[in-house]
Records
---
Amino acid sequence: MTFRARHLLGIEPLSPPEITSVLDLAETYVDLNRRTIKRSDALEGMTQINLFFENSTRTQSSFELAGKRLGADVMNMSVAQSSVKKGETLIDTALTLNAMHPDLLVVRHSQSGAVNLLAEKVNCAVLNAGDGRHEHPTQALLDALTIRRAKGRLHRLTVAICGDIAHSRVARSNLILLGKMESRIRLVGPATLMPSGVAEFGCEVYEDMREGLADADVVMMLRLQKERMDGGFIPSEREYYHRWGLDAEKLAHAKPDAIVMHPGPMNRGVEIDGTIADDINRSVIQDQVEMGVAVRMAAMDLLARNLRAERGRALAEGGHA
């Protein structure tokens, strides 16, 4: 398999063959996760630390489950009760973690670039579980796997990413990944929720939902990230739903077999109508959750292989593993 990365900090450094390697291996883990005995020894003897500076029930539980199914010793560090709250710096945290000799470090942080900084200071493989407005690579990979399984391909699809683009690291990672796979990307939402310099992203931008969804193969809704908003980005939730919330009438403008996605958690009746979210013929939202575990297993497996190979070379050269 083609996958040379030491860390998974974002989609940007990955080549299309590396993305495909993660997805292909994840397919085998989808099968494993559907068996009665969901166990692999890919991370046997390895230690995984989940370090979440931001709360995330889905992502943290998904990484924890992925590590345990691969045979790792998994530890969740509760940052809310840790020394970080007492003023410890990120560098001090990295030094403390180094002393524990982990093999895999899964990090979620509110500041863009914090995960990259940690990766420079620790002696293990680091996975970015979301940093600020920067990236959320495993979310984009699980979305890609979900799309590929539903559509049979990732290339040359029309994907509409709708809603709060400005505050979404999910949108950024998906934009990069789908762009690498030569898909046509549309960003749909109010001008107040579009990032600055959006015209340079190489995608189409629509403020009108119906125009943006016209003949789309994939409709990806995003959560309104109110915790990152400090001003009047939308007139009201009711008005937002009327103009940009996904309902049957707006979805009718997409292709008849278009799939509906949402990274969760959903604000029903704000970003998406509950009936659409639960429509088993159109919605793949629950599939995204399932694919999340498989993709995170694949990513950690590939990083662990590279880490073992690196340590093996160091030993052969007379160094320290």
---
Amino acid sequence: MTRRALIQLTGVTKQFGATRVLKGVDLEIDQSEVVCIVGPSGSGKSTLLRCMVFLEEHDAGEIRIDGEPIGFVTKNGKRQRMGEAGIRKARRNVGMVFQQFNLWPHMTALGNVAEALIRVRRLPRAEAAQKAQAALDRVGLAGKGGSYPSQLSGGQQQRVAIARALAMEPEIMLFDEPTSSLDPELVGEVLEVMRALARDGMTMVVVTHEMGFAAQVATSVVFVDEGRILAKGPPRQIFLEDGHARIRQFLDNYRRRNAFWQDAPAEAVGG
């Protein structure tokens, strides 16, 4: 069966001032893959994710979403920035969930989810509300549509943010450290929603420090360090078999801080 590449990065670089954050990244993500991007803080993980949808402009290289370039095109041998309409079109099948929930405080959960359907998709309010409610149902918030963000826990607010992205019916979901702003006891409810999306076949790219989630849910794990991809492979290969010294060092440090890795048998790691 031929696999369909939904995201392709070729030679992608990004620099902030004198600091090169991404150094010639090549990466391909196929339909229905769940790719977890892991690595030390400051390694370029979030920048890599944001470049995928041109929230950060890459300085060189090419990024394609479902075969179409995003951000820049080459015309007459010259690299040219795409117009905003072209960028929006390239993003149309991508949903993104950030560390911060970014909900409108004056809108209910239902209103937050419906807003983009009304403004971007131009749906009538009744239809938008129906789709928004279905998205809330999908993330386990069927009875919270009338609640305002201040009335919701952090985990519930993040699930509203996920519902907001899902309501747009994306083919790809990107998650940038979606649990990093949550109290530990609320992390599980967000990860369970993400597990359900993976079971449904959603193509997902997740920047995360949740190694247990990556080990058990990812089809591929990408290890990033100092702006480069050191390895990509099934969880078992990265977490249990890969011989790269930097990866071993990172995981050894993680194990010392987390009981899951101290006690978990090898069978707990997927792939």
